[in-house]
Amino acid sequence: MDDDALIIDRQPLPAGIPERLAAQLRFVAEADKLKTVLRASPLAAADRRENDAEHSWHLALMVVLLAEYADEPIDVGHAIKLVVIHDLVEIYAGDSPVFVPGAADDQQEREAAAADRLFGLLPLDQAEELRALWDEFEAGATPEARFGKAMDRLEPMLLNWLAGGGTWGMTGASEATVRAREAGVVAASTSLGDATGLLVEEGLRRGWIRP
Amino acid sequence: MDDDALIIDRQPLPAGIPERLAAQLRFVAEADKLKTVLRASPLAAADRRENDAEHSWHLALMVVLLAEYADEPIDVGHAIKLVVIHDLVEIYAGDSPVFVPGAADDQQEREAAAADRLFGLLPLDQAEELRALWDEFEAGATPEARFGKAMDRLEPMLLNWLAGGGTWGMTGASEATVRAREAGVVAASTSLGDATGLLVEEGLRRGWIRP
Fold this sequence. Notes:
The structure is a homodimer of 211-residue chains.
Chain A: H1 19-30, E1 38-42, E2 49-51, H2 52-66, H3 76-85, H4 90-93, H5 107-119, H6 124-139, H7 143-163, H8 175-186, H9 190-205
Antiparallel strand pairs in A: 1-2
């Protein structure tokens, strides 16, 4: 997070770019900050935490690969779009780690304020479009949003599995809170929910998740 | 890049997951390695180089925001899918920086071998699907592939602009090689090509690009 100034203010665009496109490019520049928002999840491939941009990419790939398991038919392109934009507000609101008690307390207010500020950089029609996509995802209002949210639950579970515990070892994590995350997978996909259940049961058996 | 072993071999999946899904989850785990493949481009939001997963996410976002500028009509969902998977082969083939003389010499062979190995982890139908998507992108065979490639050219140009030079300062970079990258934007979008031209002209004027 860097709340101080827009990235583009360090190096304003050259003159001559039409205003609509210039606004969009300023947003594209500002979005670079998502690469610096750290999540609690450990990477499997390196000894560091994951950032929001990497996470969003991983969800998009999972939508491509796992869409066949959605219990309701989904428009794959639309579901990918939702996961690509779903964490953008964290550029200003920060990540709210699920196993940190209190982290979610004012999350909705912080993220709504961040959405106003961030999407407000765009031309009005696109600001409204991205806000609507984000609201759709947050509300789980459509099969695509529910499937995207399922990927958003499954990916960190898989990273925890690969790390031999990961964020399952955090103070606020226990079988109850982990099962609440599993429920987000089950809600969109019986098959993926079953597989997630196996990860959790074996995680409990190995002591990676506290009962 | 970690050529030594599959990520999943460190922590094999629990028993009971159907083989097709298990293969897909092993692929999802292996894909985590894309987060460790560094590109030459500097981030705007932090003092480090960009990795392939972040880059792929940024292109997906740009497709959502800039699709209106495509000279040919495009299916946005399909174009996003292409950019999400376009760099996966670099997990085994590594990044081939465009301004490093010789880096592209055996790039096609290396990447084709990497595609065989990586996509071969998937069930056959999906291996074929991802290979076809990757071939489509590489060949610029469709309007969606050409637009995705345009994003793949424009994003590092914008990062270079924001960095006050970035990879434009590398030994192999000059107006001719930078203009060759610009051509990839022009090929898919007159408007975005014009804007890219302005970045390059101003970059030349400021001495960020050698004539």
